Amino acid sequence: MITSSIDKEKSHLWFAILITVLLVTYEVLIEISINTQSTFFAPYTQLPVVQWIIRLLFFWILALLWIAYRRWCQAIRRQLEFETIISSIGPDVFIVIKPDRTITRCNNATKMMFGYESSEVVGQKTGLLYFDRQAKDKKNKIYDHLERIGFHVGDATGKRRDGETFPLEIITGKLLEGTGAVILIRDITERRALEEQLRIQSISDELTEVLNRRGFFELANQQLKTAKRYKQKVFLLYADVDKMKSINDALGHKAGDEALKEVATILKATCREADIIGRIGGDEFAILGLECYEEGAERLALRITEKVNRFYEEENRYNLSISLGLAYSSSENPRFLDQLLDEADKLMYKQKQK
User: Which of the ends of the chain has fewer CB neighbours closer than 10 A, N or C?
Assistant: First the structure.
C-alpha cells in the first residue's frame, strides 16, 4: 500500500541521516585528535589511505542521503496522486482495507452514500457500511476469485447511518503481498429498479396489462411447485372470448382490442389478488388459483360469466361473451401446467360448442 511505502521510505531517509550524523561526528573527533596530538588517533589519521577511505565513505553517505530523500519525495507525490484519484471517484465509495477488513483509507463519498464522514469510517470494519457476506460458500467463492484472478465483483446490502438498507455492487481487488484489498462500492438502487421494470415489462401483456404467456407460465409453474410441496389444491380456469372475429370484422381491430381490455378488467376485478391471471393467446386467458375448493372455483367461473354478460347488456357495444373450462390439481391427483391447460381447453371448447 502507498502508506506502507511512505513509512518505508521515511525509515530509509532517517537511517541515512543517522549515518551522516555519525560520520560527521567521527570527522569532528578526528580533527580534534589531530589538533590535540592524541596518541591514539593521530598515527592512524595521518595515513593517506585512511583519509581517502573516510572521504569516499563520506561522499557515499551523502549520495545515499540524497537518494533516500528523493525516494521519500516520490512516495509523498504518489500518496498525493492516490488521494486525488480516490477523491475524484464519485459518487462511488473507494476504500482500502487490511486483511482483517479494517478500513484504512476512504474517499469523501461515504458521506453522500452512507451518511458517515470519512474520518468516522477509517479504523472501522467493513460491517459498518454493508452486511459482511458471512455465508461460508460465498466467502470461499470471493477468496477463490481473488486468489485466481486478483479481483471479484459481487452484490451486498448496504446500511445507511439512519438504518435504511439498499443494494450495492462491490468490486474487490487484491493488494500485493496479502497486505489487504481495495474495494469500490457502488449504489445500484436505480439499476435494480430499472431491471425490475424491464422484468415486469417482459412478462406483462402490453394491451391488457395482465401477464403474457411467458409470465403466466413462469409464475404458474412456481405456484404449482409450492402447492405440491404444501399439498394444496389448485384450479386452472381457461377463458376464451367468443366471437372476436365478428367484432374485429364488424367494428374494427381497435374495438376488438377494447373488448379484450374489458374482459381483462373484469377478470382482475373478480379474481383474488393472489390469483395468477394471464393472456396466453390472442383471445384466450388463463387463471391459476391456489387453496380453492371445487365449489369456490365454480362460483368464480359463474361470477366471471355473469359480469361479462352484464357488461354486454349495459354497454351494448358489441356481442361480448366468454366460454370457460375448469381443471384441478391436488396432492391426490397432481397435474403439470400443460396437462391443466389441455384439460381446461377441451372443457372450454365443449362449452363453446353449446
Answer: C
